Amino acid sequence: MKSKAMKAAGWAAAVGWSLCASLALAQEVDTTKGIEEYRRMIQDGNPADLLAMEGDEIWTTSYGPKQQSLAQCDLGLGPGVVKGAYARLPRYFADTARVQDLESRLMTCMQTLQGVDPEKIVKEDFLKGERLRVAKLVAYVVTESQGETIAVDTAHPKMQEMYELGRRMFFYRAGPMDFSCASCHGADNQRIRLQDLPNLTKQKGAAAGWGSWPAYRVSASQFWTMQHRLWDCFRQQRLAEPIYGSDATVALSVYMAVNANGGEMMTPGIKR
Hints:
By secondary structure, the protein is mainly alpha-helical. It contains ten helices and seven strands. It folds into two domains: 1-44; 48-271, Cytochrome c-like domain (Cytochrome Bc1 Complex, Chain D, domain 2), CATH 1.10.760.10. The chain is 51% helix and 8% strand. The protein has a three-stranded mixed β-sheet. The chain has a two-stranded antiparallel sheet with strand order 1-2. It has a two-stranded antiparallel ribbon with strand order 3-4. The longest helix has 41 residues, at 2-42.
């Protein structure tokens, strides 16, 4: 009797587990469909387009102590060339002897052409003052690379150094949570709430991640640049706030961008 009871209990447990697994699978399918529908709905209009229009105007408007525009700003393809420039950033710039991402390069142009002190931008809060001005310029510049192929050149030794630094930072675990960038973005098929977490160590995931940022965040009603996005990653890891435009942030961008080579620029993206 005892043996039969144990077998019956085992059978019941197996049936119960099977039902739970089936329900969980059904719930997962429903959740996935809901997420896909939500994403389809929010793609209908991107508020970042309005910021891009403002950025376009800022680009050609005289400003700063020197009362000059940014029309001669060199983003890597020659003075004033914006089309396709973001798809090739970050990159090494000989005039600064540095590897720069879009925001740090814009700060250089604002300083040299307009006389704007970069420290004023570095010490500003996101989406305020000069940093908001930079964000609008970012929205304009990235829009001009929509549909372009990501093609970041790693030939220069300093680009190779920055890629290696970015790679080490990506996998470096720190802070009270013992997190690294790879904790969220180092494996396939991960998701947090309604947001997929692309595997940035692989080309497909990096192309999806890097290629869709900067982006407008619907939940925050804000346009976030890549510097803003990285700042939030550091915050979630409970790490010290990174310095805006620092080599540390640029190195992480280099790592992601190089891994994304060959992908399509879909910026500005739109996120949950």
